[in-house]
Amino acid sequence: MTTFSFVMPNQRRVRAEMDAWADGHKTHAIKLVKLSPEKSKQISRRMAESMSKHKDGKFELA
Amino acid sequence: MFLSPAFKADMDNASADGDTTLSDLKDAFKKYWSSGFHPSFGQDAHFAKPKEILSLSVRKSHVDNGVYRNDKGYTSTEGAWVKWRSGKEYIKPASDAYLIYAVTDQRNAMLNAFLDEDAHNTVENMAYMDEIIEVTYKFYHQTNSKPMPIDEHDALFDDKWLED
Q: Is this prediction's ipTM beyond 0.90?
C-alpha cells in the first residue's frame, strides 16, 4: 500500500515548504482548517446523505 | 482539481449559511496538493479494499478534526499533530477523519467525500465504499480521464509534480 507516513528525504519541495512554514514565512499563505470534532461529524453525516441525492450531478473544477 | 457533486452541493449550501468549513477544507487540500504539505493533513494512503478500488486510484488523507487518542500509537496523539503543525516534524500524524479523493493519470485530484463517522470502520462497510466507487467511475467517464496506476502513487509527492 502506498502510505505516506513520513516526509521522505528525496521530497525536496515538500521539505522546503515545511521549512518555510516552520520559519514563519507567511507568504506561503497556509491557513489552518478550524475543524471541531462536532463540526467534523456534522459535515460527514450531511455528505453521506448528499452522496445519494447527487448521484447524477456534474463534476466541477474547483 | 475537481469536486464531486455532493462535495460541491454541501460546500455551497454551507457557504450560503455562512459556514466556510468545507470551502476552507477544499482550499487547504488545494494547497496540500500543489505543495505536498498542509498542517491540517497528515497521513495519506490509497484504498485497497474492495479489490476493484485498486484500479480506480482512490486515496484518503487524514484530517486534523480535533480528536486525539493515546491508545492508537504515537501518530494519533495530540503531540504528534502539534509537532506536525509546527513544520519541524517529518512524521505524519493520523486521525479518524478522511478526505477521500481520486487521482487521474495526469495527477488531477477529485475531492469525493469527507468522512468522520468512525472512518476506519466505515471504510470496511462495502455499501459506503460502493458509493465512493460509483462516484469515481462517473468522474472518469464524465471528464474523459483515467486513473493513475497504483504503482505510480509512490511518486505522487515527488519534486516533478510539485510547485517550487
A: yes
Nearest to A14 among B2, B43, B157 (CB): B157
Backbone angles phi, psi at B41, to 5 degrees: -120, 130
B36 vs A52: CB contact, 8 Å cut-off? Answer: no
Nine cell digits for residue B36:
505536498
Give the range of the structural domain holding residue B95, as residue numbers without chain letter: 2-155
In a domain, B103, yes or no: yes
Separation in Å, CA of B26 to nearest CA in chain A: 8
> Are B153 and A2 in contact (CB < 8 Å)?
yes
Measured CA to CA, the distance from residue B94 to residue B98 in angstroms comes to: 10
pLDDT per position as a tens digit, B67-116: 999 999 999 999 999 999 999 999 999 999 999 999 999 999 999 999 99
The count of structural domains within chain B is 1
